[in-house]
């Protein structure tokens, strides 16, 4: 059954099963890149960052303290969030580099596709990073529109000559392609202007869908606060926490604008806002994982435990702190329930948290979480215990009581052999389904692959960060591909 037919079947079968509280809510999902568990004041009073609007989401909604993403790096974490599946299940084990033959398989069902089948208008703004070939872009994964970068903004020097059997790609493209839907419309030399641009695009989208009386799903994937830090000029040096604090403040102000708009349009109680990060803080930034051990690239909790804030006035109780086990994979089935869609036919790993969010249940239906590092299963946790598995290079088996020791400092493996045995058996079950290293699992699905790579940007206007010198793009007239030298001319984004 094709993805479309399958979804149509689900929609028809459950057409009358709308969210009991009323009409399907608008959904705004804000994903901040590499934001650590300790980077927000509502999680860590000593974060040093000024985030009053983000903290407001916590005060007016629910703040999760045991929320995980499936990977401590970008691409697998994002693929997992979009599909409700462990990245190992869907074959996106590693970070995707520019001009990659692989991407999130178009046959996978994303949150956007689930919601679009329920009549939602859908838009993706910002960093994508689950495939830059046209077959893998947001517009092929359920989003009506896309504006943003297909991968991380630190990858601008990586587009060098790539010879394949089929094609030779552009030489030394030291700029980043900025896409509108399926076409690169400009090359950007940095992302300083993009945070504001995303905000403006977000405000326009929300207003437009409100006027059209359509429920909407807006996915805003910030470039912030991934290295290198590039806040706009207006925010430079204005925080107490260096460039990270500056950039996070800019993100926070953008959220403030969106909150104001939602309130002024009178759709506050019809709008669910989800705010989270894709992985823990990177070493080279001033990001904080708070009281957790480790950060990005690791399977210590600092790599995968991130903030999740949920605000939906009137439906999600205000001022709540939830310590239940939850993951980014759970957002797809949860949002699907609110929208009146059913995900029962999808083979995914997410569980429905709607009862927890609405205060109807205290306990999360999620019993465990598996920490995959690349394609290897590295650790497993249940509501209380975390077992680090013995690694291929002799990494020791370790057991931590996360209830009393969230910083993973005291190994209790020798004192708790029964817990070790129980979690080890659970890990073996999962390996049979999802695999581990070279060992294949029975439920794994392949990533998407293109047979012929296409260059992703040829001659485009270059849009730098010098407003005074900005000139309109010369439509139809090709400009030289950006080189190592600074661009002679700068243009506005079409
Ligand atoms: Ca990231």
Describe this structure in words.
The chain is of the alpha/beta class and 494 residues long. It has a domain of 329 residues: 3-Layer(aba) Sandwich (Alkaline Phosphatase, subunit A). Helix content is 23%, strand content 17%. An 11-stranded mixed beta sheet has the order 12-2-11-10-1-9-5-6-7-8-19. Helix 6 packs parallel to helix 7. The radius of gyration is 22 Å and the shape is globular. The C terminus is likely disordered. The chain binds calcium ion. The site of calcium ion (CA) has 6 residues, from loops. The site of calcium ion has 6 residues, from loops.
Task: Please identify which CATH superfamily of the domain at 3-153 and 190-367 we are dealing with.
Answer: Alkaline Phosphatase, subunit A
Small ligands present = calcium ion
From the spread of the alpha carbons, the general shape counts as globular
Number of strands: 21
Radius of gyration: 22 Å
CATH class placement of the domain at 3-153 and 190-367: Alpha Beta
Number of helices: 11
User: How much of the residues is beta strand, in percent?
Assistant: 15-25%
Give the strand line-up of the largest sheet. Answer: 12-2-11-10-1-9-5-6-7-8-19
Query: Termini separation (Å)?
Result: 39 Å
Structural class: alpha/beta
Largest sheet: 11 strands, mixed
């Amino acid at each position: 059954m094709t993805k479309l037919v399958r979804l149509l079947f689900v929609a028809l079968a459950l057409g009358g099963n709308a969210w009991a509280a009323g009409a399907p809510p608008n959904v705004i999902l804000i994903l901040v890149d590499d934001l650590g568990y300790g980077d927000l004041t509502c999680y860590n009073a000593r974060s040093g960052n000024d985030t009053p609007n983000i903290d407001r989401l916590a005060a007016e909604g629910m703040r999760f303290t045991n929320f995980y993403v499936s990977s401590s790096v970008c691409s697998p974490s994002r693929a997992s969030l979009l599909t409700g599946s462990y990245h190992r299940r869907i074959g996106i084990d590693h970070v995707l580099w520019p001009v990659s033959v692989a991407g999130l398989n178009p046959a996978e069902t994303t949150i956007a596709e689930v919601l679009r089948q329920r009549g939602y208008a859908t838009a993706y703004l910002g960093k994508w990073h689950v495939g830059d070939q046209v077959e893998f872009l947001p517009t092929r994964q359920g989003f009506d529109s896309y504006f943003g970068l297909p991968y991380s903004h630190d990858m601008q020097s990586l587009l060098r000559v790539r010879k394949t059997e089929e094609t030779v790609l552009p030489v030394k493209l030291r700029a980043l392609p900025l896409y509108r839907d399926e076409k690169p419309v400009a090359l950007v030399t940095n992302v300083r202007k993009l945070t504001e641009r995303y905000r403006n695009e977000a405000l326009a989208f929300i207003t437009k869908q409100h006027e059209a009386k359509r429920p909407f799903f807006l996915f805003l994937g910030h470039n912030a606060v991934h290295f290198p830090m590039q806040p706009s000029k207006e925010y430079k040096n204005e925080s107490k926490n260096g460039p990270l604090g500056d950039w996070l403040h800019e993100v926070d102000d953008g959220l403030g604008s969106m909150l104001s708009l939602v309130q002024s349009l009178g759709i506050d109680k019809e709008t669910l806002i989800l705010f989270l990060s894709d992985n823990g803080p990177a070493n080279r930034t001033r990001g904080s994982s708070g009281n957790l051990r480790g950060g990005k690239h690791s399977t210590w909790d600092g790599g995968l435990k991130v903030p999740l804030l949920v605000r939906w006035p009137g439906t999600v109780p205000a001022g709540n702190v939830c310590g239940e086990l939850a993951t980014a994979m759970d957002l797809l089935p949860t949002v699907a329930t609110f929208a009146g869609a059913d995900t029962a036919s999808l083979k995914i790993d997410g569980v429905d948290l709607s009862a927890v969010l609405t205060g109807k249940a205290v306990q999360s239906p999620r019993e465990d979480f598996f920490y995959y590092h690349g394609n290897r299963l590295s650790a497993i946790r249940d509501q209380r215990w975390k077992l680090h598995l013995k690694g291929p290079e002799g990494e020791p088996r370790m057991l931590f009581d996360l209830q009393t020791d969230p910083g993973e400092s005291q190994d209790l493996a020798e004192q708790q052999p029964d817990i070790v045995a129980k979690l080890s058996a659970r890990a073996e079950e999962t390996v049979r389904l999802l695999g581990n290293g070279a060992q294949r699992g029975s439920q794994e699905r392949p990533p998407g692959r293109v047979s012929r790579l296409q260059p992703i940007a040829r001659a485009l206007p270059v849009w730098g960060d010098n407003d005074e010198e900005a000139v309109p793009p010369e439509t139809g007239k090709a400009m030289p591909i950006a080189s190592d030298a600074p661009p002679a001319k700068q243009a506005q984004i079409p």
